[in-house]
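so i finally got all the pieces together for this one. its three components total, 1251 residues if u count the protein bits. some of the lines might not be protein, just check the labels. i wanna see the whole assembly predicted at once instead of chain by chain like last time, that was a mess tbh
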Amino acid sequence: MVQVAFFVGAIGATGGALAVIALRNPFYSVLALVVHLVSLAGLFLLLYAQFVAAAQVVVYAGAVMVLYVFVAAYVGAVEEPIWEPIPGQRFLAPLLAVALLVELTIAILGTGLTALDSEGPTVHAGFGTPAEIGNLLLERFLVVFEAASMLLLIAAVGAVVLAGRRTTPPTSSASRPGSAGSGSEVAAGPHAPTATSSLAPADPPSAAEQGG
Amino acid sequence: MIQVMLWMPVAVGLLCFAAPRRAVPILAVAGSAAVLGLAIAVVAGFDTAEPGLQQTVNESWIPDLGVRYQLGVDGISLFLLSLTAVLWTAATVFSALRTPERRRIYFFMLGLGETAALGAFLAQDLLLFVLFFDLMLVPFWFLIGAFGGENRIAATTKMIVYTLVGSLLMLVAAIATAILASDQVGHLSFSLADLSAHTVSTSSQYWIFCFFAAAFLIKMPAVLVHGWLPDAYKAAPLPVLVLLSGVLSKVGAYGFLRVALPLFPQAVVHFQELILVIGVGGILYGSIMAFTQTNVRLIAGYSSIAQLGFITIGIFSLRPDGADGAVLQMVNHGLVVGAIFLVVALLWERTGTEDLVRLGGMAFRAPVLAALFLIVTLATLAMPGSANFIGEFYILIGVFQSKIVYSFVAAIGVVLAAFYAIRLFQRSMHNRKPDGIASSELSLRDVAVLAPLVACIVGLALYPGLILGRSDAAVKDKIAATCPRLPAGKPQPGWTGYAPIPVPDRCSSGHPEISVIK
Amino acid sequence: MTFHAPHIDYAGLSPVIALTAGICAVLVGGVFSARRQRLVVSVLSLTTVAVAAGLCIWQWGEREDLVAGALRLDELGLAGALIAILAAAVVIPLSWREPAAERPGSEPRHGEFQALLLSSVLGMVLLAQAQNLVVLFVSLELLSVPLYVLCGSAVRRTQSLESGLKYLIVGSLGSATLLYGLAFIYGGSGSTDFTTIRDAVGSGLTDDPLVLIGIALAATGLAFKISIAPFHQWTPDVYEGAPTPVTAFMAVATKAAAFCVFVRFFEVALGPAVDNWQPALAVLAAVSIVVGNIGALGQSSLKRLLGYSGVAQAGYMLVGIVCASALGVNALVFYLAAYTLMNLAAFAVIVVRERESGYGDGIKAFEGLGRDRPDLAWPLTIAMLALAGLPATAGFMGKLYLIEAAVDADYTWLGVAIAIGTMISLAYYLRVVAAVWMRPAAEPLAPEGAGMPAMAGGSPEADPLPSLAAATAAPRPGTRCLAILVPAWLMAGATIFFGVLPSPLVDWASHAGGALTPFLA
């Protein structure tokens, strides 16, 4: 039974991951990603990591994917070149990927296979439950827990810094950009508005322009 | 006392920033004169019989790294210190009379350079030596780059890159020496005394010596690694050039005596022939180039290469006579080349050119200048009776005892020196005076700069024993490290069968005196 | 299941607590408007860093595990923390007139700007003390995320946005690589604690392929953070694009903290596998020295130049880790401190010149500085000479220390590599000094550019004109930059002081190395 579940999960995860990069329609890719994430959640369950599995489904497959779907629908289909456009990387990238694959294969064949016949680590009852994780977070990983909360706070502040709209006096919004580009405005490329507003989603036309 | 002498120039240089603008040159001159006074006091208080260090300072500096603040004077560094003080005073006075723009930084850099040069001669800790050796570059880089002539930035950068290539490798080599020796010494120590008492294994000595030799040869510069010389000499302001050629080039040669010989005796013996070839090559190349150049600075510059070739082979004859001659010659050459560059500066002021083709006839209206220049020229070509003659003579004796072939080739250099030195004098002072060039006599202030230098040259010619008598003991001490067969103080007949002349007193006697120069 | 609250040594944790409290206070200080905000916020953040520094010094000499072994309180960690705090203390005044924080024509954002800066410092303090894989990763993120934002915070300049985005992508790649590696190491050793990993690796895992891959990936991830070649490509671009105070902070503080954790992770946790990672890191160091120095040769933007020079300097510092000896760690910490001093001095001058000359951070902006502005020229000169490793500066002592460590560890060829790298580096450091002292001043550009660096137009419909108004309102060159000059001179003075009398700093660094002595051969 466990084996069957494992292979279902494994095939789902690998297939989903492959489909994400193989499918040309971004919408399908997102859906494939959902398959991948749910399969991973299944694998987590097999590892007695109930909480992680649940979090995976709720946070990733649920919340994050909804955002992805929203963005994919909003931006629409983008024609991506099949081949890497940067000439040097076109050959280097597959080479490095193969190298990494070989490396990982060696590692797995060298170490991972020896664990195949074993029963895996013995875990005590209650391993992976939310209560256990909560305990860990407040005992061994208390510092991490606090640091992560700080990280979230700072990430929010950072988002505000980058995306916050300027409060502009209504009178000046009528005048033309920088009065015909005087000295200080020279470096303003035509891309500047696009880049700025892509971080400020309150500006739909230019965001769409960025996508297209 | 040597501590005060060492730090006074840079302290005075820093004071220059605080002093009012007009007082800056006076302050700088006073500072360098004070250093000169201290240097004379050190010479006066020197104990001739003592081969080791005198006036030592030994303080802990960076204990964790085994670096100590060790200073000391011995017979080798004694007169190089004096030379440094003399030339710096001359250069400072000369510059003060023609106050440069941005004088504060100029005199600060001069002071820093003097401290670094004195430090290199005083340091008795290998790392301290390397530090001062490198530190010397900074002020000279500035002085040439900020106050020099055409193409100065490229020239000065070329100089510093060349010299640092050598000296950074030397840093690695110095550290390697200390660490390799630390097993025997028992603790990490850069002290030259410790390191020469416990030399590292022969195979390590070879590469370490190569790094050191590279640094010293580039600094001198020796032929093959002299690429920075023409540009830097053309671009440097003349008072700076006096120091560059008079003092800095000696640090390289001094390094061989102070560091390479005692610390890497086997390697020195092993590479003796190679260095001799470089030295002799330098003599020939420098002499021939000096003969073909028309730029006065370059003539003096290439003649420096030749003279340093002499000094090198003197040291690497590995005989006390040769090394004694080398020490004497270092001082001689410093004085002579300093005087030449000052004369060049005066010529330039009068004529606006440094090209021999466009010079001439200066002696008509400037007999004093011509007379002083003649003395300098005759000293350059090692006229018998000058101290240069004695120096070269000793060097050749030393080389004759150890490697006779090289002494024959080197002797050609003595002849060539006569060619280029007389050509320099003749073309500038005699010949027909080209149009548009005014010949005018020295002002009293310039005499005040030039005359003491010439007086030093004459004085040394009269009494070279002043140097030889004091340096001999220390030199033998250093040479002895490389020749275990040759106990210090007892030179043995070379294979040629000539018994070497006993060193102390006879060096001054037996030569026609000042009459020749006059 | 029962809950056992871990023992918390509040004294040992006090710098972290002080910083956290300070960040919150600074954020709240952002409610003030206009000019008062800058004053209030700066006072708050400078107090915070002063208190944190004081607490670090108070705790100096303590050695214990904090909060269930998550953090290690020892001199190495505190040294990293002090360096990061010093960098922040210098960068806060540098940022006072920074357009990224001022955002002319609208609300100033000093509160957010300095809070982000401080939270990055918090991440660095945690990182330098981290003794657990999870703490390592989270504090690395806490360090990085504010920096991503700060790099892009000059939202009206394309280069800044590009820099932020580039740093975000490359930094995330580095983090991901690191995390992947950490996962392998955890998988192999079964623990996230450094000391437990050390025991596990020591008992027969040194040649385990999974652990080796983990080590390689972790080293790669950390190499991204400290910009070791060949993982350095982002460095010059990000340095150039980011607001200069941020670049200054990033260049020194990130390196300090990341090097502290690098050394702790490799010497403590992976110490038994030293034979495996030592040669690899040695090669990385050599490559970094060569690539960084050669890359810097052709640069005309001073920030790019310092970026490449940072790559080379990281290579030098990596030598300290390669040595795997107490001497190496001492040398590393010494060099980090020296590097901080000299780089901050250089960047402070760049900040001033960037605002008052029209040439931005191009080398032209510095021509003739020695004649016109000796008060700026000297710190820059000292910094450049020190970076080049000339004697009588802390840079020389640092190189001396590193070479000594390298030779002592039988890596003489790395010592030679440092020497050769230094030779190459002279060419570009001296080019800057030559521009300062030996060239006439460049023609000043159009007066509009005088007050500030050229700014991108931003979204014109949102905020037109204000940049012009602000530019004209900005003070004339040299009038009010005392807040920058004083730190610059302090840093330059300290560079010289520790070059002439290095003993205090050497002692300080050797305490840090001493903290790892039990783990070093």
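Confidence is low (pLDDT under 50) at residues 168-212 of chain A.
Residues 50-75 of chain A form the longest helix (26 residues).
anyway lmk what u think
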